[in-house]
Specification:
The protein is α+β, with helices and mostly antiparallel strands. It is 34% helix and 23% strand.
């Protein structure tokens, strides 16, 4: 990912700065070059990212919605920035392929973890929801594709 994103502008960000904020409009993709990032959702920290080439904002771009987490620099960091994440993915299929592999790996890890929880603690109070989560992950309908243009077919002019 670092090689494929070398054409993007690099941005140096001081420690403690928010890169993307949960709930805000998405659209940009960031690539971590160096430093460390903390990822939180609803105020709960759930990940620390130090691996160069890691992406930020990709899910928002793919789903066309707001950022789903807040990402904050933990130390001075360098990130590459694609202001138009959709264009980046559309024009760089190798980046899109690596993104898909990364998302598949993350989904596989979460599913494996949930199955492990169910096998070890499935009858414990409060963990009955694991079966429900696994069912939702496996049966969630895909977002329907919308062919054609995103242009309004009946503009008000």
């Amino acid at each position: 990912m670092l090689n494929l994103s070398a054409h993007l502008p690099a941005v140096e960000i001081d420690a403690g700065q928010v890169v993307v904020r949960e709930g805000e409009a998405g659209g940009s993709i960031w690539v971590l070059v160096s430093g460390a990032l903390q990822v939180s959702r609803a105020g709960v920290v759930f990940n620390t990212v130090r691996q160069g080439g890691a992406l930020v904002g990709e899910i928002s771009v793919l789903l066309g919605g707001p950022y789903g987490a807040t990402v904050t620099t933990m130390e001075p960091s360098v990130l590459r920035h694609a202001a138009d994440g959709r264009a980046l993915l559309a024009h760089h299929p190798d980046i899109t392929r690596l993104l898909a592999i990364g998302l598949a790996e993350r989904l596989n890890a979460v599913t494996t973890y949930l199955v492990d929880l169910k096998q070890q603690y499935g009858t414990a109070p409060g963990l009955a929801m694991v079966s429900e989560v696994l069912r939702e992950l496996s049966q969630r309908p895909a977002v329907p594709a919308r062919p054609g243009s995103a242009r309004d077919p009946n503009p008000d002019y």
